[in-house]
Amino acid sequence: MLPFVLKLLGFIPYPLLYLISEFVYVFLYKIYGYRKKIVQQNLKNSFPSLTANELKKIEKASYRNFCDVLLEDLLLYTISKKELQKRMKLLNPEVFDSLDQKNKGAILIGAHYNNWEWMALSLGIYAKQAVYSVYKPLSNKSIDALMLKARTRFGANIIPMNAFGKSVLQNKDKASLNLMLADQSPHKSKVDYYCDFLNQDTPVYLGPEKLMKAAGLELLFVEVHRVKRGYYEMKIVPLADHVLEEKGATTLLHVNHLEQVIKNNPENWLWSHRRWKHSRKK
């Protein structure tokens, strides 16, 4: 039943999709107040110099962004390759081409910023090399199977979190792209590094850095910017071609880059997640 419904949703005109998004916004933000206290606290801690009015403006815009992305992602199951390329354009494919020519693989760092699902889906179209994306399996097996089917439509390989490290090492000689969304709080047992991020002491997982060193990979960052409603541009930013010697230094490259991206347009980040739920032991 659900696959049939998702296919029907693929016929919804985009103007109607965004009209529905407006109703979802009213419900989630103004009526239900979905995670509003978390969003408000995260914004307040991240931008202590902003006024209450400025914070409220970002808050409202972030919920509108969230609702648009939520509705757009209902089309993952049906959006065509041509339509996705039109709505998620890669500005500099030459970065991927250069890696392919060097027969070099990379860790590609992304974030929950603008439409990260469309970004991940489109990589299978734009990249010549194999794409491997890490994911956390859902508890609902039926929905999990649907998401896997949607995410692999254009050739990407979706790897569970507990098998991703092994996958990267197995493919280190195949010049693969290994996508990780590295902006959520790591599991408490996996925290091995803290840094300053958005004015807060923040736990960061060193996994990308460790995998780079173990597999001889380069470090790239994928920026996703909204051009207008329903249209995005991706830019691939090379950050390092090898691991820096000091522990955490390579990790800071992508953490600091993301911080600047967020500061430029904070409303486009996912503020509703509990990014700072773990604190450093005193």
Report what the structure shows.
By secondary structure, this protein is α/β, with parallel strands linked by helices. The protein has one domain (1-282). The protein has eleven helices and nine strands. The chain has helices spanning 2-9, 14-32, 36-46, 52-72, 81-87, 94-102, 116-126, 141-151, 161-170, 207-215, 249-264, and strands at residues 88-90, 106-110, 131-135, 157-160, 177-181, 194-197, 200-203, 218-228, 231-240. It has a seven-stranded mixed sheet with strand order 1-9-8-2-5-3-4, with helices on both faces. Strands 6-7 form a two-stranded antiparallel ribbon. The radius of gyration is 19 Å and the shape is globular. The N and C termini lie far apart (52 Å). The mean pLDDT is 95.
Write the layout of secondary structure elements.
Blueprint: H1 2-9, H2 14-32, H3 36-46, H4 52-72, H5 81-87, E1 88-90, H6 94-102, E2 106-110, H7 116-126, E3 131-135, H8 141-151, E4 157-160, H9 161-170, E5 177-181, E6 194-197, E7 200-203, H10 207-215, E8 218-228, E9 231-240, H11 249-264
Parallel strand pairs: 1-9, 2-5, 2-8, 3-4, 3-5
Antiparallel strand pairs: 6-7, 8-9
Helix pairs in contact: 2-4, 3-4
